[in-house]
Amino acid sequence: MKISPAQRVKGKLRVPGDKSISHRAALIAALARGDSQLRNFSSSSDCAATLDCLGKLGVRVERLGNDVRVRGVGTGGLSAPAGPLDCGNSGSTMRMLAGVLAAHEFSSILTGDDSLRLRPMRRIIEPLELMGAQVASENGYPPLRITGRKELRALSYELPIASAQVKTCLLLAGLHAHGRTEVVERTGSTRDHTERMLRWFGVSLELESEPARARADAVSRCAVNGPVSFDGREVRIPGDFSSAAFLIAAAALVPGSDLEIENLGLNPSRIQLLDTLRAVGADIEVVETREECNEPVGTLRILGSKAFDEADCALQDDAAADRLCRSTTISGSASAALIDELPLLAVVGTQLPGGIVIRDAGELRFKETDRITATVTNLRAMGAEVEEYEDGLVINGPVKLKGAVLDSFGDHRIAMAFAVAALLGEGASEIRNSACVSVSFPEFFECLESVVER
Ligand code: S3P
């Protein structure tokens, strides 16, 4: 994909349905009794992999455009698949579905593409084995052979790493277990879509967040008393904030921009990017919010900030200049909350007078590619000064990026983060291997082009 610099980002748009919520809606609807209608289902290939696996497990799934009808089989009602279940590139599909398969008394094999087969699975294998399932793997990596057990043992489990996929895996297993399955998070709660979706389907959960001095110290507990059965229902899925993030950053960074994004998921556990961008001077307004299917949804308006305009920067008063010149640091629980947005924030960091420091983000090395090395390689190609650490990176800003030949390394979020960087560059850039955006946001390049003015 060739991308040339932008003059402005202007217009009004919607992004496709949320990928995280769509996975959960499909899995939970499959375990419900009777039909569920899932509206505005994600167009991503990751969520298509979840639907495909459910089909192979005996769930009737009909897709009509963005709407998906799932005929639920009830908890424990899946049937043995005839062959391996291919999760494609989707870690969410593999980790969440594993929790469901752990409670079914047949053997199944979960596999995926070259990238997924390099992603660590011990984080789900250990607790699922404690619950009584057998999970064979290649030294903690896929393919996984899961031999489930009908009467899973309930478990109280403290997550050793902040991961909403692992939390979801255990809660879905817990729906089938006998007794109280509890997941404890010590570094603040990860995204809570599973909790919200289960409650939408009428499953009662015990949720507790201890008051803490700061979000980073918060202990969250979530428990389900199994076994549970519940009925299907309609789910309306909001736009995906993690997809919108690229458009938000593009509009915030290009002076003179004015972008509105409607029907966007604004779950507090997903939108820390807004605070981070506002702290460095971005002008972002939540125009309207409402609650839909237990999720906050609304419209955002982003104005291209003067804070990023060099000419205007010189006119800032001392206090504003001081605030902008301090380097921005993302570490601790903020790195976990911003995990999908960190490559994008690295790009943003190149435009900040104080640059950006990203640490405690070692998990980035275990995503669809090693996102630290991929980000560093591409930023250097564009002329940025970057130091790489095992758990993050440090960028000196501001820098005028140059157009360059960049690589997605097969990772959708790297491709999209560098499409934003390309808008800021001097001269055109080329992103190799850009088709991987379909993993989360197949319409990304058309969406971007529809609002970029040159
Ligand atoms: C996701 C959780 C995150 C995130 C991924 C989607 C989810 O992964 O990176 O894109 O939907 O629960 P981890 O749970 O591994 O941090």
Which labels suit this protein?
single chain; 454 residues; five-stranded mixed beta sheet; four-stranded mixed beta sheet; 15 helices; 24 strands; binds shikimate-3-phosphate
Please give a quick description of this structure:
With 454 residues, the protein is an alpha/beta fold.
Structure description:
With 454 residues, the chain is an alpha/beta fold. The protein contains 15 helices and 24 strands. It has a five-stranded mixed beta sheet. Strands 4-5-3-14 form a four-stranded mixed beta sheet, covered by helices on one side. The two termini are 16 Å apart. The mean pLDDT is 94.
If helices are DSSP runs of H or I spanning 4 or more residues, what is the number of helices? 15
Q: What structural category arises from helix and sheet content?
A: alpha/beta
How would the global form be characterised? globular
Biggest sheet strand line-up: 16-17-15-2-24
| Ligands and ions found | shikimate-3-phosphate
Share of helical residues: 25-40%
* Overall radius of gyration: 22 Å
N-end to C-end Cα span: 16 Å
| Residue windows where pLDDT falls under 50 for at least 5 positions | none
Give the topology, please.
Layout: E1 2-3, E2 8-13, H1 19-31, E3 33-39, H2 45-56, E4 60-64, E5 67-73, E6 85-86, H3 91-101, E7 107-111, H4 122-130, E8 134-138, E9 141-147, E10 156-158, H5 164-174, E11 179-185, H6 193-200, E12 205-209, E13 220-226, E14 235-236, H7 241-253, E15 258-265, H8 272-279, E16 283-292, E17 295-303, H9 310-313, H10 318-325, E18 328-330, H11 333-337, H12 342-349, E19 356-358, H13 371-381, E20 385-389, E21 392-396, E22 405-407, H14 412-424, E23 429-432, H15 444-451, E24 452-453
Parallel strand pairs: 2-15, 3-14, 6-7, 10-11, 18-19, 22-23
Antiparallel strand pairs: 1-23, 2-24, 3-5, 4-5, 7-9, 8-9, 11-13, 12-13, 15-17, 16-17, 19-21, 20-21
Helix pairs in contact: 1-2, 1-3, 1-6, 2-3, 3-5, 4-5, 7-14, 12-14
The structure holds shikimate-3-phosphate.
Shikimate-3-phosphate binds next to helix 5.
